[in-house]
Amino acid sequence: MTQEQITSTEAQPPLRAYLVIAMGVLAVSLAAIFIRLAQDEGIPSLVIAAGRMTVATLLLTPLTLRRYSAEIRSLGRPELLLAGISGVFLAAHFATWILSLEYTSVLISVVLVNSHPIWVALLEIFFLRARLARLVVIGLVIGILGSIIVAVPSGGVVALGDNPLLGIVLAITGAITVAVYFVIGRKLRGKLSLLPYIWLVYGCSAIVLLLVVALMRIPVTGYSVQGYIWIVAMALVPQLLGHSSFNYVLKYFPATYVGIAVQLEPVFSAIIAFFLFSESPLPLQIVGSATILAGVVLASLGQSQKS
How many Cβ atoms are within 10 Å of 45's Cβ, its own excluded? Predict the structure, then answer.
């Protein structure tokens, strides 16, 4: 890290940095809401996932090719292969997470899919032979305990479908696949600027999802205009505005604290879902969700100390 970077992170962040991170959290909190609204219009989950990534890729294409075409052309086969693999796991993440919202509440789905820092730490243990800080281990244990609490069947569980356990499994699968995406991204990101990196990965993800939709012969036309509007809103607000905000504030805040701020997403999503969809989580679900969030925060702080 250069002296200039050290100075910028140690200086008091300007007010706009706090406003941008708040806007980013609110933007990503709307993802599950837009997904649910698109599902209510009868659009299949896989079409929603494919549409979100395709629109995001198309919106990024003009700026990326205009500014970074030389950098993209300079990539070798290993980098392109990594981008493709990363895109496959990102596609699996969106497919499983969006599908989970058909079977369980916004709160449970978003809390579980945001447990990915825990799964990143576990992947580092098994595949990178990493030694974890004590706080990370404590966070892992607490997070797993919270997942067990959430998964405990209870009367009156909030669910849209008839298989809430399937929704939980899908959301956890979404967390694991996005964790793999992050681990791969750490290596690839060191060789690429941000915009060409996300353009390549988003593009690969969109292609994979479109192929799955085509192979399963799921119709992509014939739905309401409002449903398509929600898909475009997903690409614009949570995907581009939300994640761009987090990348911007990394200039002013450590990555760990930005990651912790993102854990407010389930809270805002649950509040919005309460008013829009009348979703009232049960006490046990709230306890389990709060436990997972505490585990993720501790694991994130532990990762910060380790680095």
Answer: 21
